[in-house]
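Everyone, carefully examine this protein record:
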Amino acid sequence: MAVRFPLTVSQKQKILYVNPPPPEELTAFGDRYMEAGLLHDSLEFYSVAKDDSSLRRLVEASVESADLLLFQNTFRALREQPPIEKVRDIYERALALGKKVEADRIEAHFLSESKSRNRGAHHD
């Protein structure tokens, strides 16, 4: 299918939700968006394709860019909770990139929850 890139919103909606092509074509669209640095768009294609291996690559990209929203939405698409190791990775990366607000959000949303659960787990 010869389509100009990037897709318009209406083209994207039609491909994703009205008349979706086979999963491998959706993944190919996702790959193009990922190569262009349009990671949130690639997430949509990988999610509809149910391409877990590409979604896992996107987790790594979200950690590398310290993008909490992408991180959360990618794990939602995988139907998993993020492992604490990955949460620590994105937190450390956010600090390294000087994204203090993002690091604070990660700490408040994930790391404080983890500390609370750990305290409760040790309680007899």
The mean pLDDT is 92. The chain has one domain: 9-121. Residues 9-121 form one domain. Residues 100-121 form the longest helix (22 residues).
